[in-house]
Amino acid sequence: MSKQVPTVPIYGIPFSKMSMDETVNYLTEAIEQKRQTHVITANPIMVMSAVESQDYYKMMRKAELIVPDGAGVVWAANYVGTPVTERVTGFDLLHRLMQEGEKRKWTAYLLGTSQEVIEAAAEKLQLQYPQVRIVGYRDGYFGADQDAEVVEAIRQAAPDLLFVARGAETQEPWIAKYKKQLGVPFIMGVGGSFDIVAGKLKRAPILFQKLRLEWFYRLLQEPKRLPRMLVLPKFVVKVVRDKENVKKPRSTT
User: Fold this and answer.
1) Mean pLDDT by 10 residues, the chain (253 residues)
2) Which key words are in the record (predicted)?
């Protein structure tokens, strides 16, 4: 992670303290300079995965920038006395970078979800940001045997921005594994963002966002997410119980 990014460690994960505007400025400069940056928009579920798995933790630590996407992360940073400036959500960051791309004629590649959703997302983003050329897209339903072919297609397209939406378990590890081969300046996992862009799911209303209940709104739309969501109360209990140790350094070996 770059020296100039102020961070707060939560169970060894260095979360950026930059505001959304500062994050966009930082990333715009990195993209313009072709300085590869893998951004993880992390939530409590990912932090708990990193707590439970050393491999997942090491993978997260390889990212150049980790931003506090989940409201639970914002709460935890505040609770342990080193608050982050604000939530920096993947959905908003995607749109802010597309806006920057409009001014700078960037190109983008979309990877993940179903064929139907990725096609609709590509079409809507292209209409919304006509100066950003979408140089390719494909669904996320491919196995390890097709990884080389997918990586090569992205390399050939040579986008400035690569947005990846795959399952929670595969999204970030896949990016971390192939980022050097991909050679793309900016790579970010965007989870369910394409579903919202495509109109398949609705974004939580502003009131839910302000009350930090976006997770609950999403659960109402997708009840199958309940087992994952049960990690949230575990995270809160753990942070409260470990208050003095949450910020302690952790070894990557």
Assistant:
1) 81 97 98 97 96 96 96 96 96 98 98 97 98 98 96 98 92 97 98 94 91 88 90 95 93 77
2) Cell wall biogenesis/degradation, Glycosyltransferase, Teichoic acid biosynthesis, Transferase
Name the nearest CA neighbour of 181 among 209, 153, 141. 153
Contact 97, 110 (CB under 8 A): no
The span from the CA of 40 to the CA of 248, in Å, is 21
C-beta separation of 118 from 218 below 8 A: no
**Range 243-252 contact pairs with CB under 8 angstroms and sequence separation of 24 or more:** 243/79, 243/80, 246/9, 246/10, 246/11, 246/76, 246/80, 247/8, 247/9, 247/10, 247/80, 247/82, 248/9, 248/12, 249/9, 249/12, 250/9, 250/11, 250/12, 250/57, 252/12, 252/57, 252/58, 252/61
Is the backbone of residue 14 left (phi > 0), alpha (psi -120 to 50) or beta? beta
Q: In whole angstroms, what is the distance from residue 218 CA to residue 40 CA?
A: 20
Asked if 185 and 37 touch (Cβ cutoff 8 Å), the reply is yes
- Amino acid code (one letter) for 85: T
